[in-house]
Design brief:
The chain is 5% helix and 46% strand. The protein is mostly beta strands and 228 residues long. The protein is elongated.
Length: 228
């Protein structure tokens, strides 16, 4: 009802806008609207840019800039804001073959065809307040097959969706709490693949998020030095 009331008020309110914006110190572009809301698509490149606004009217204006997109494979950057995320890949002997603390997006992870692995994805709330509705998206290389999510998954996971190429988990995190999602994998197909970034975020707090960097993966018949 509140949104409907605001929409009705704004549709009947005569509060025209007059503003100019300058992108990267170029020529000023005027924007005018008879409505109290205005949206403008910026012709900005995929790089840092400078935006200047000048209010030509007599009312206070509130501006926001929103960017959307998907980073090309290999260009994802690890980040952590409000939550922490770590992933570790173990072989069937329980030895670590890869983890996000040491890996870089420029390295290639060799895996042996037919071998089983366990991926542990750990999410931690380092803050002093609870975080509700965390969505964890564990995407996997297309050359690997998912077994099942661990039967002993931590208590408190609200919902988990296991698909062909990803495991989606939803849960809350108390202050200082850590939860780990385990996924059984098999290196099924030979070839070179890409391990996409694993990401987690609070669904209704987009500033609370974390992400790993992506990683190239090569599934081989025999990995030099690997145990059979």
């Amino acid at each position: 009802w509140a949104l409907l009331s605001v929409a009705h008020y704004l549709s009947s309110s005569q509060q025209p806008l007059a503003v100019q914006y300058t992108l990267d110190q170029g020529t000023a572009t005027p924007l005018n609207s008879a409505q109290p809301l205005l949206s403008q698509l910026l012709n900005a490149q995929d790089a840092a840019f400078q935006l200047a606004l000048h209010n030509d009217g007599d009312r206070k204006l509130y501006a926001s800039v929103t960017q959307r997109g998907i980073a090309p494979a290999g260009n994802e950057q690890a980040e952590a804001s409000g939550i922490e995320l770590q992933a570790t890949l173990l072989d069937k002997q329980g030895s670590t073959v890869w983890d996000t603390t040491a890996a870089t997006s420029t390295s290639t992870l060799p895996l042996q065809q037919g071998q089983d692995y366990t991926l542990n994805v750990t999410v931690t709330n380092p803050g002093t307040a609870a975080i509700k509705h965390v969505a964890l998206s564990t995407l996997l290389p297309s050359g690997m097959e998912i077994g099942t999510a661990s039967a002993d998954k931590p208590a408190g996971i609200t919902y988990q969706d296991v698909r062909d190429d990803r495991v989606l988990s939803y849960f809350d995190l108390a202050a200082g709490e850590t939860k780990t999602v385990k996924v059984k994998l098999n290196a099924a197909f030979l070839g070179e693949f890409y391990f996409p970034a694993i990401s987690g975020e609070a669904m209704y707090q987009p500033a609370v998020r974390a992400r790993t960097a992506g990683l190239a993966v090569k599934i081989m018949k025999v990995v030099p030095g690997a145990m059979p």
